[in-house]
Structure formats: C-alpha cells, structure tokens
Amino acid sequence: MPVEITWWGHATCVVEDTNIRVLTDPLFARRLAHLRRRRGAVPPAAARRADLALVSHLHADHLHLPSLACLAPGTRLLVPRGAPRAVPGLRRLRQLRITEVAPGDEIRVGEVLVRVVPALHDGRRLPVGPRRSPALGYVVEGEARTYFAGDTGLFDEMAERVGPVDAALLPVGGWGPYLGEGHLDAGRAARALARLAPRVAVPVHYGTYWPIGMDAVRPHEFHAPGDEFVRLAAVAAPGVAVHKLAHGESVRLEVAR
User: Fold this and answer.
1) How far apart are CA 68 and CA 93, in angstroms?
2) Which backbone phi and psi does 38 adopt, to 5 degrees?
3) pLDDT, tens digit, 9 for 90 and up, residues 112-137
4) Which of 108, 149, 163, 242 is the residue whose CA sits 20 to 30 A from 115?
5) Cα separation of 187 and 236, whole Å?
6) What's the pTM?
7) Which CATH superfamily is domain 3-253 in?
8) pLDDT tens across 194-233, in order?
9) What's the CA gap between 187 and 105, in Å, rounded?
C-alpha cells in the first residue's frame, strides 16, 4: 500500500500510512497575529480529518488553538510534555484525546507507531513564559518511516536520534525575513538531508505566511527557499528524490520492505 504525503502549507502536512491519517502542526488560519496567508488556500474541511495530530512545539504557528478546535471529537493529539500547563487553552479542548510526550516516547495508533525525537529549537510559548516544554520531531512508522522535523536547527546527533527514515519533511524557511537560532534554512536543511539519507524529502515551513506590510522586505526569503533547497539537496544528497510540492499537492511513496 503506498504512503501518501500532502503538504497544506507552513508545517501542516497529512501523512496517510496503513489507513491511518496523521496531521502535523495543524494551522488552518488565513491570518495569525501579524502574519497573513499569502499562498495556498486554507485546507478544506476534508483535509482536517485525522486519526492522530502531532504538535511539535508551543509557538502559535505550530500549536494554534483555533485550528486544534476544528479537529473532530475523539482525535488523538500528541503535544510536548508540559504543554497544557504552559498553554491553558489546551485544557479546554476536552473533545480531543491529548497525550503529553517527550523524546524517547513511543505511541501506537492502529498499525502506526510514532516515535518522539528531539529538536533543536526554543520550546517556550513566546513572547513570554519559561522554557517548560521541549521542542519535538516525530517519526511516523507504518509501511514507511516518515520524519516530521517540526522546527529545528541542525544538531550533531540528528541522524542517530532520528534513525533510518524513508521520507523526511524538513523546514527550509520561515515566516519572516530573518531566521533566528534553531531553524533550518535551505542550506542547513540540505546538510540535514545528507545526514538522514532518506529516499524522499519534502520541503515545508516556507512560502505560506508572511508579516503584514513586509512584502518588499527581502521577498526572496518568502519565495526562494523551496527552489534553493532543491538545488542544494541535489549537490549534498544526490540520491534523495526531493519533491517540492504546491499547497495541497501530494506525493506517493511506494515502500518494499
């Protein structure tokens, strides 16, 4: 059975594996604070259906309470350990089955096993609040092993902690003209790809949201990261098939174990 990966913009993807739908960092907003959606339609209702949703860290463009409230009652939701304490609004989403996780945890849903892996990123609920929760990545293991990196910088143990994977969903940009610490740009993402050596990669976390009023400020940082990642990955990891998806587009991965 093929594994299907669909990118809906920013860090929101659907991974369908062994009849389980996994949704990553759900964000269904046209506007979020000072950000507006400049490319891609807001995911339709059908795209929001999931057996399991994953939240990588507490930043509002990854843990977005109104988007999580759109999930169907009974949806399983994995969040970083300490998230309900740091984000009290999570506790009001009583229709969801929320599980707090940390690196090293494993959660099984149907025939899919989700491994929780570390990420190098600020895990606080900014702009205020102590560092109460870890930033996470996830490996979805069914017919394939699909790595969702969330937000992360490049770290020495990445390949060891993530383990062998068939597909990697890697952030290659951001939502503003400058990337801070703990992020992958196109170049660092290509280096991460060389370490992870999956069969397939999909660039995410770029080209969707941009600050209002900043259209003329370094606009190439909005438009270019996907193409730049394709170019650099061809040099750093020539054996990996990179699929630069349009919003709402899918790629199928045939896996023979």
Assistant:
1) 8
2) -105, -15
3) 999 999 999 988 887 666 667 899 99
4) 242
5) 9
6) 0.96
7) Ribonuclease Z/Hydroxyacylglutathione hydrolase-like (3.60.15.10)
8) 999 999 999 999 999 999 988 777 788 888 999 999 999 9
9) 30
